[in-house]
Amino acid sequence: MDLDLKLVSKEINEIMWRECKTLATAESCTAGRIASVITAVPGSSNYYKGGLVCYADEVKENLLGVDAKVIEEQTPVCEEVVRQMVIGANKLFNTDYAVAISGYAGPGGPDGGKAGVIVGTIWIAVGNADHIETRMIEEDNGRDKNLASATNAAMHMLLDFIKGEEKPEDAAE
Question: What is the pLDDT of residue 107?
Answer without folding.
Answer: 82
